[in-house]
Amino acid sequence: MQLIEAVNAAIMFLITVVFLTIMAIIVQYGQLESGLERLLYAPQLLMLLFICWPIFAIERIIYLFFCQHRWKSYVGLVFIILLPPIRLATRRCNHANMIWLFGWRLTDSACYTELEKQFLLSILFLSLFMSPFWVTELIAPDKLNNHELLYHLVNLGNALIWELFVIEFIIMFSIAEKKLFYLKKHWLELLVIILPMLALASILVSRYALLRQFKFIKPENLLKIARIRRILNIYRTRSVFNRILRILIVVDIFKQFYQYRNPQKYLALLQEQLAQKEQEVIKIKQRIQETKQLINKMGHE
Question: Both 131 and 228 in a single domain?
């Protein structure tokens, strides 16, 4: 059973990444003028997207059938059907503290810190590579639009970065203990995720008269979002600088300097971190005790 579960987790992880990759490309090209027309194999990609979509619902229904579940499992099923990339955040059957990331990982603070470093570095390097293209896109968009190779290079790069933002946000948000604090801290990344989708929605509303029948959609308002699509480059660039500062903090470059500059605040920070670690130790001890009780109960049966 464990082998089947691991194989299923690996396959579904791959399918989710493929689905999200196609979705990222469609979102990126779909918000551009004649973008989908210039995208090679666009109909085939859309078809593949719709073929993969039902797989997530079927897999989650099977999951509910074989595994213990609570009301949150049904809520998760609904969200995954609506937004399949959320499948990345699902947990192991009957092990709510385990997540599949090229192997089962315990969702503790150590996992959070390690993943934070990995995502920071990967998105940072790719963003730094794309920064010159973003500046060119902002200053002279016609040059990129008229050069076929650069046009696709920039858009595929933007799609990949958007995909990494989505993967990072889904996984890290699911692991974070304080969800609201994570949202407050990472609002810029969330904006980078949402803004292209809003721009795509505005384009669809402006192009297809059928969508205009919905009274709650106002094309004139959504079109304003499309006009500020280029401002997304500014948000992405700002996010790069934020990530540089976060990397410097995560890898402890400034900690010794901060320790001698303001030892009282540094002591308060250390005490807060110690309190958090102590709470984690208490939780782990509780889980150990519960597991021992479960083992004893199963032994008597």
Answer: yes
Which residues, in sequence order, are bridge partners of residue 97? none
The tens place of each residue's pLDDT in the chain, 301 residues long, gives 678 888 888 999 999 999 999 999 988 888 777 788 888 888 898 899 889 999 998 988 888 877 766 666 778 788 888 889 999 988 888 787 889 888 888 888 888 888 888 887 787 788 778 777 777 776 777 777 788 888 888 889 888 888 988 998 999 999 988 888 888 878 777 877 887 777 666 655 555 444 444 444 444 444 454 455 555 555 555 556 555 555 554 445 455 555 666 677 767 777 877 887 788 888 888 888 888 887 887 766 6
Decide which of 105, 120, 136 is a domain's last residue. Answer: 105
Rounded (10°) CA dihedral 180, 184, 190, 195: 120
Domain residue limits at 76: 1-105
> The pTM is what?
0.71
Same domain, 243 and 260: no
Contact by Cβ (8 Å): 157, 133: yes
User: Are 155 and 244 in the same domain?
Assistant: yes
